Amino acid sequence: MKRILRFSLLLLFCVFTLHTYHRMADFAAYRADVSLDGMGGGDKMLPTIPPDGAIDPLAFSQLYYSVYIVQKGDIVGKIAQEYGVSQDAIISVNKLKNTRALQIGQILKIPSITGIVYTVKDGDTATSVTDNYKISLEKFSLVNSLKDDTLTTGSVVFLPDAKMDWATLQEINGDLFLSPLRSYRFTSAYGWRRDPFNGARSFHNGVDLAASKGTPVYPALAGTVTSVGYNSVYGNYIIIRHHSGYQTMYGHLSAVYTRTGAYVYTNTHIGAVGSTGRSTGPHLHFTVYKNGATINPLTVWIP
Fold first, then answer.
1. Spatial distance between the Cα atoms of 62 and 249, rounded to a whole number of angstroms
2. Is 227 within 8 Å of 245 (Cβ atoms)?
3. What Å distances lie between residue 300 and 14, 98, 210, CA to CA?
4. Contact between residue 248 and residue 295 where contact means Cβ atoms under 8 Å apart
5. What is the pLDDT of residues 17-32, one digit of tens each?
6. Are 282 and 212 in contact (CB under 8 A)?
7. DSSP one-letter code for 215
8. Most CB within 10 Å of its CB: which of 22, 59, 241, 285?
């Protein structure tokens, strides 16, 4: 009886295996017979034509430039609003490095559509550039009169609807940094001045903000504390490294509430105003470095 049962199970297994083999062979024959590389046609001209009116028409305008002469009281934001483009467009097209440095009589080129200019790098294609900036390849091709995906290295193209990165735009507009003190009196500017101790001409590498001893000090921009120490000139100080090559220093502190290696935010209480080091009274010495060189803090911060 057991032999009969084992034989029956073996026979059933063989039948199942044979059936499965034939099914797999049939599927392989189907795969070989049916093409799986189907593709559709494309449009010969741009803009592409949608199947019906359910798709909104492409908002497209030709790119051209107008000339604008800066008037007294003009700011980039106001000019951009009048022409219906973004600040990014005016800043990018005119290669502005500091929007607060506009001069009366300065000539600006204003593009007819919003976007930014871009210099093609080696290896760039129309597809890679538009994917990187998350803009329409179709619109980009129309604006720049492209016939294929090829771009010439070193050529300048216009990226419709693209924006500058946040940090660069903030830097150019002069409001990348926040105030390190919530309340203060501005007592000394950046640059050449008369030394308050001996009257000799000396270079002041930051700005001085007078405030009561113990006034909370905050980072002007989020970053990593790279140094905490004492110096005969700056007294107790803190140095913070930020993005894009920026560093800031906070000097003459009466107390330090952070440590090297800590990541701090603009609302982190890192120290207190004091008069340590070479100082005539309680104040904060605030220095901004860009790639190792001091710059005027007022170019990146609105006091």
1. 48
2. no
3. 81, 9, 20
4. no
5. 545 555 555 555 555 5
6. yes
7. -
8. 285
Give the integer Cα–Cα distance in Å for 64 and 115. 12
| SS3 per-residue string spanning 239-255 | EEECCCCEEEEEEEEEE
What CA–CA distance (Å, rounded) separates 205 from 292?
A: 12
pTM exceeding 0.70: no
Alpha-carbon distance 205 to 285, whole Å? 9
- Taking the C-alpha atoms of residue 6 and residue 12, their distance in angstroms, rounded to an integer, is 10
**Rounded Cα distance, 270 and 203, in Å:** 27
Q: Say how many CA atoms lie within 13 Å of 112 toward its Cβ.
A: 8
Span 160-219, pLDDT tens digits: 999 998 888 888 888 889 999 999 999 999 999 888 888 889 999 999 999 999 999 999
Q: Which two tokens stand for residue 280?
A: 């005539």
Collapse the DSSP code of 289 into the 3-class scheme (helix H, G, I; strand E, B; otherwise coil) and give the result: strand
Return d(Cα 160, Cα 139) in angstroms, integer: 7
